[in-house]
Amino acid sequence: MTYRIFALVAFVALIVGVIVLSGGEREVAAPIIVEGPPTDPGYAAKKARLIQTGPDGAPLYTIDAQEVQQQPAQDTVDLQQVVLGFKDSAGDEWTATARHGEVAQNSGIVKLDGAVHAMGTLSGTAEPADITTERLTFDTNTQIVTTRDRVTLIMSGRKLDAAGMVANLKERHVQLESAVHGTYRP
Predict the structure, then answer these.
(1) What is the CATH number of domain 44-182?
(2) What CA–CA distance (Å, rounded) separates 177 from 186?
(3) Phi, psi angles (nearest 5°) of residue 3
(4) Which of 8, 64, 105, 129 could bond 83 through an S-S bridge, CB–CB 3.0 to 4.6 Å?
């Protein structure tokens, strides 16, 4: 009888061993290969204010935006619903609004697009200037505002339309590039 119990236990052990050892091939997870360091996702914020300061610590310009998203791979910051505020070299305040914007990091270049509207006072005059266009680039270092798009300039109650503009706020000089329409008498 002991022989039969021993044979039965050995048979059950054999069946369990066969099932365990032949229980199908197990999948091995593929190794994850990361080339180089992990990418920096950058920062993002809603209802943010960016302030660029000069060497003396005073603000050069401020940017208020509904959404801000850093793009580290492009070295830029994308902006949505933008308000750019700055003072020219004479201390006159300017404000520009746009649907979108982009700031190139460490360059001082602010690009605005989508219903751009800039307002301010030209140095040496008490007259406000009003600029509307689809795209505008502002170099905060040189204080030069440019566009190649259609632009409308309203100043001293007169309206000028043109294709392209270069405005040097330091030198109080505005140049309309081509297809200028309107009259302006100082």
Answers:
(1) 2.60.450.10
(2) 19
(3) -65, -40
(4) 64
Q: Which residues contact 99 (CB under 8 A, 6 or more apart)?
A: 80, 81, 82, 113, 114, 115
Domain ranges of the chain: 44-182
Give the confidence band of 159 by pLDDT, cuts at 50, 70, 90: confident
28 band by pLDDT with thresholds 50, 70 and 90: low
